[in-house]
Amino acid sequence: MGGRLARVFRTFNLESRARREISKEKPTPAPRHPTSRLDELADHPEIQEEIYRKDDRLLTLLKDVYVESRDPPAQVKVGGGEQLPCKQEEKRLTKLGNLGDLDVKKVPKGKISIVEALTLLNNHKLHPQIWTAEKIAVEYSLELKEVNSLLEFFIPFAVQEFPKETKKAI
């Protein structure tokens, strides 16, 4: 709907606007600087002669220049069409959460999934004497330094439910 309205305004009085633009006088160009005129070169034949004259000294210097280029040697592939095996990351099975098919099944060693991170943080919060940093590092194949950083800087939220009588006071 808006396209039709826009088209009406675009084509309104189009012919008269076009005639008006065509009938306008063309603007005069800006004056040129006197040194940029090529007409003066035609007036002075000695300048034309100097331009087209060959300089023998420069030509001999140019002949002395020799450029040699070589392609790099072609590299031959050893072993025919065999490909070297790429480095395989060691993977470990995760401790599955409750999402079933949506859970991540395999994680590279040295990393953990989000479900595992929340689980280990919660276990450490509830039972810090059982779930120590060393036990978590062994259980999830992590480095001890990273586990200490994880336990220090990440704290899971605690959900607290207030009794009904305190809700009224709030």
Automatic annotation (TrEMBL):
InterPro entries: NDUFAF4. It comes from the Eukaryota. Binds calmodulin. Interacts with NDUFAF3. Residues 18-46 are annotated as: Disordered. GO terms for cellular component: mitochondrion. Residues 18-27, 36-46 have a biased composition (Basic and acidic residues). This is NADH dehydrogenase [ubiquinone] 1 alpha subcomplex assembly factor 4. Belongs to the NDUFAF4 family. The lineage of its organism: Eukaryota, Metazoa, Chordata, Craniata, Vertebrata. Pfam families: UPF0240 (PF06784). GO terms for biological process: mitochondrial respiratory chain complex I assembly.
